Every structure is written in C-alpha cells, then in structure tokens.
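Intended use. Records such as the M14 family metallocarboxypeptidase entry shown here are meant for training and evaluating sequence-to-structure methods. They are not intended to support clinical decisions.
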Amino acid sequence: MTTQLNNDQYPIGTPGQKWGDAEKAQWLAMQTIKRSYQQEVVSKIDALKANFDVEQYGELDYAANTYPLYVIKTRNFDASKATILVTGGVHGYETSGVQGAIRFIETKAQQYSDNFNIVVAPCVSPWGYETINRWNVDAIDPNRSFYANSPAQESALLMQCINGLGIEIFAHFDLHETTDTDNSEFRPALAARDANVQKNWNIPDGFYGVGDTLRPEADFQSAIIKSVQQVTHIAPSDDDGKLIGVTLEQFGVINYPCKELSLCAGLSNATYCTTTEVYPDSPKVDGENCIVAQVAAITGGLDYILSL
C-alpha cells in the first residue's frame, strides 16, 4: 500500500490556510492528460448504438478540451416498469467504475430490460478520467456536489439529465474505487485545500458497499455482497470494526448519509441505492477482476429486486 503523506506535506498552499484562486490555478497547472476518454470510453459508447439509445446530455468545455457527456438507455422506455440508474466515473480516476458501467451495458443490461428501464451514465467526469483525478478543473469534488445550484458542472448536468427523464429512479448503483492514491495524493490534497486535518487513512483491501443511512435496505446490500463474493474478495473491517473510519453495518457494508453529504448516490429518492467500492491496488486482483466485480454488484442487486 502506498505510503501516505502527512497533512502538511502537500506541495501547494500554506499549512493552516485554505486555498484561494492562485493555489487552485497552481494545482490545475500540474495536471496532465494520461489517457484518452475518446478512445477508452466514447468509442465503446458509440459501439452500443445498434442496441441501445445513446443520448448526449451535456458537454464540458475545459480550455483546449471539450468533453461530451452521454447516457445509454434501454429502448422502449415504459413508465410502468421500474427505472434503474447506473453511474460511473463520478470520480474520474476510478477506472472500474467507468469500465464496469460500460461492461454491464455490453453484457447484461438487455437481459434485465424486460423488467426494468435502465439508464447508464458511464463517465460523469471525463476530464477526471483523462487526468486520473478525483476533482474537476476547479478543484471541486463532484461526489460532494449533488445539490441545487451545484458549482460542479459534472454534478449539475447529471442531475438535470436525470430530472429530465420525468421518471422516478427505483434503484441506483454508483460505481467507485478506493485506491492507494487516496493516501498518496487525494487526502493530502484535500487537507491542503481546506486547511484541515485528515484523520482517516484507512484503505480497505477488497470490495465493500456503502448504503444510505436513511434507506439502508440491508438485505439488498447483502445480496450485492454475496454476488460480488463469487468473483472477488470482500474487504474485512479493521481492528475497530470499521471501514474507512465508519462502523460496519454488516459484513462488507457501511452506511453514509448520502443526501446530507451531497453524494451521487443521494441524487434521487430511489428505494434501493448503493455505492460500490473496489480496491484495484490489491495484490489479489487485476483491472479485469475489478470490472467484473462492478458488474456482479449490479446484477446481484437487480436479482434481489426481482426476487421480491
């Protein structure tokens, strides 16, 4: 596991002082393109047009780069069926969230389309995907920005898209990763940006799920864990019975107040919602295993709903 930086070791800013525009500009100047959204994501979305409805719901215009934003939908939307939302890449650097959402559409979505309307937004933060970043260009975390008049374009455009469907979301799967860079980069950057102290440096080794404190749906979360267990390992709790500083609700599951924290998982009033977390830096997995685990999380949850 990557060694963490101390709270005062980040190379931008002055300890004890929040970042201003100058520090944010300095941070942005350090970011570079490391992979292609067009080649790794958009090309796969284009290939889905033969069997699904692909719609552009917005566009991010970031200096020299423009990023179209897409949702993929099963055809013949039927208001009498429950609508399922899958989101990936809210944190753009979390690769299997993006690729897992696409893989689900490619391999599994059609078999569930008789029972559900399915909407997939596979890469909410494409600039973050290309630069391998948690934040957007304004040093804002989109996954803390799902609220009215959001300053994060990524969050605001997705909320506008989902609200524009005119259909209640019944279940929402938000696909994420927890990586070693959380300690080597993102938590220290957060401490520097906000002039606070990061006390949680825990990175669980394995998959875990995050339910909503207000609607935990323990059996739904358990079904997801059982499904994922067939393809990869589940993260054990730490010595205090916690994951990332939060007390375990059940094996492999913690709960967060999603709306209170303005998380993507709280953007609707879905009866069932979960945030998945895989650990791609584990010696027990590889990139493909992480993608398959994300798909297993979705299918496990959908199979549970169908069993009711």
